[in-house]
Structure formats: C-alpha cells, structure tokens
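I hope you will forgive my troubling you with a question about protein structure. The matter concerns a single protein, recorded as an amino acid sequence and a row of backbone structure tokens. Please examine both parts with care and let me know of anything in them that strikes you as inconsistent. Here, with my thanks, is the record as I have it:
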Amino acid sequence: MKKQKKESVNDLHLSAKDRRLIKNEQKRIGRLKTQAQVDVYWKSLMKLPPSGERHTLILFALSVITIKAKLGMPRRDADFLKQSEDMHLAQANNTLGFFSPTFARLAQWKLENEALHGAMTDVTNGVNGAEGIKKDAKSNLQKTLKLALAYVNGLALDNQAKAEAMIEAALMKVIKKNTLTIKDFEVKQMEESGTIQLRSAAAKIDGKRVNAGYDWQYSINNGATWIALPSTVNKAKTLATDMAIGVATIFRKRVTTTKGGTTAWVVSKPITPQ
C-alpha cells in the first residue's frame, strides 16, 4: 500500500453558543420520524450558504459521533462511595493533564465524600439519627457528581479527538451517540478486496451544479488522525484502494467551490473493508 501523508486532527474548540446550536440541531434531528421528514430537513440545509457559520455547525452536529460520559455509579452505599472517592482522586491527580481548568467543586467533592463516609460509620455504630444524615450526605454527593459529569462532558465536547481517553481518565463510562447519517455522502464496499467507493452528491449553488473540488480522507483510529486520499476535481466520487482488511475505517469529505468556499468535513459511518 502506497504511503500517504498523515494529518493530525485539529482539536474542536467550541463556544457556548456553538454547543447550544449543535445541541438544538441534534434535538431537531431526533424528532425526524419518516424518510419524507428527513428529505425536507436535508433540502432546507442545502439552501444555507455552504461557507456560513450555521451551515458548518449543523454539518458538525449531523456528521460526528458524539462521545459523551455517564457516571455509572453502583447502588450499594460502600461501592458508591469508593467509586466517588476514586473519581475525585483521578481529577485531583490529573495525571494525563486533561482536567484544566480544574472542576470548581473539587475541594467540596472531597468534603462530601468524607461526610458520607462519616455518616455511614455512624449508621454502622448505631448512632441515633445517623440514617437521615447519611441520606442527606449521599444526596449532596450525588448533586456534585452530576456537576462533575457535566464538567467532563463539557471538556469532551470541546475536544472530541481526546474525549474517550478523557472520560476513561475520569473513571466514567464512555457512550457514543450516532447522529443522522448525511445522505449526500456514501461509502460502499466494491467487489475488489480492500476497495471502497466514496460518493458525494454533486456540488450545487442555488440548485445548479457548479465546478468543485472534492477532498477525501480516511481514519482507522476513530478520527484521532486522518490520512489524505487524492483530491478530485469535478468528480464527486473516488475509490480508496488497498485498504486494511478487517479494520474499521471512517471516511470524510469536503467540497470547495469558487462561490461557496470550502464546506465543513462530513464524516461517514464506519465500514470494515473486506
């Protein structure tokens, strides 16, 4: 296989406004129930200026695999406390440097862990009223854990390339939410082994086809790094040959036109070349 140039993925730094737009757009996508609704939505998106901010962010909302965290806390009090203590320590030590700026309630989190530990000890020793105190202490700790989750998810959204490692470092559970697959980009296994066809919808402005350049890339590590394929001019499809057999691969494409500029990258569903 011919060696091709690697491109490191850029960190995705999004403003609060950008994140709100993406979240709202994903809610809209989630309400699409029929193919007809999907078609209408897609047509409305295509009417937006290709180089516009909203167009770019909506394509981001559509095309990425959003990697998020969940707490996954055990129910048993002793296990719950141990998990919370370990999570706190992971952020306090910050061995891999992910947790910056520091979670605002990090010091309070430690105090609430200690409060729950003390209340559990009092319950075991039969101290009068300790059960109610333990209940309140656990409730307070749960609130802080939810804030810690929101903090980690905020960091993960800002840097999806490192989101999975970041969530695992926080000792939280990784969840991946696949959003709507964009219809204008398809990848298909061809008869020849290791060959994948990439096909884009032809570039259009104001409903008319225009001259365009198409950039193509692929990744075998879920987007951590990308490898460039030869670009094409006025040709909305290409073949990726000599792909690694049995290795999950994602592709992405973008389109450049004189009037519309360069679009955001659009990412495909994973495919495993055969």
User: Anything to note?
Assistant: The helical segments are 16-30, 35-46, 53-63, 77-93, 106-124, 130-158, 163-169. The chain has two domains: 6-64+179-267, 69-176. Residues 1-12, 178-182 have pLDDT under 50 and may be disordered. The chain is about 40% helix and 20% strand.
